[in-house]
Amino acid sequence: MKRKSETKILAHILRGLSSINRGHRHPFRTFTRRTIFTQGSHFHTFRGVTGVVNGHSHAFSGRTGLAIPVSGGHVHNFRVQTFVTRNHRHVLSGTTTRVVNI
């Protein structure tokens, strides 16, 4: 039986900087959650909160695109709008890492 510290959790990391809105952008970093199998492939859900800039942050949630094969594994593209905070939102987009242990 594995100890709790030996349990492996496999996920993709999503990280980057948001679009610029009202003269600022937010850093973000999160990891994928659920895996949903479909169309002979799969996608993942994710959620998180951006870093604080100008005294505020933005919550976000969404799903990745389908798996894209790359050398050594696969990645996913993502694009989502944050929830509105202080009357504005940002776009988060990019490509996940390959699967990593978190």
Q: What is the helix fraction of residues, given as a range?
A: under 10%
Order of helices and strands: EEEEEEEEEE
Total discrete domains: 1
Oligomerization state? single chain
The count of β-strands is 10
* Helix/strand/pairing category: mainly beta
* Number of H- or I-type helical stretches: 0
Q: Approximately what portion of the residues adopt beta-strand conformation?
A: over 45%
Strand order of the largest sheet: 2-3-4-5
Average pLDDT over all residues: 93
| Principal-axis shape | elongated
First-to-last CA distance? 20 Å
Protein name: YmaF family protein
InterPro entries: YmaF (IPR024307)
Pfam families: YmaF (PF12788)
Tags for this model:
single chain, 102 residues, mainly beta, 4-stranded antiparallel sheet, two-stranded antiparallel sheet, 10 strands, elongated, YmaF, YmaF family protein
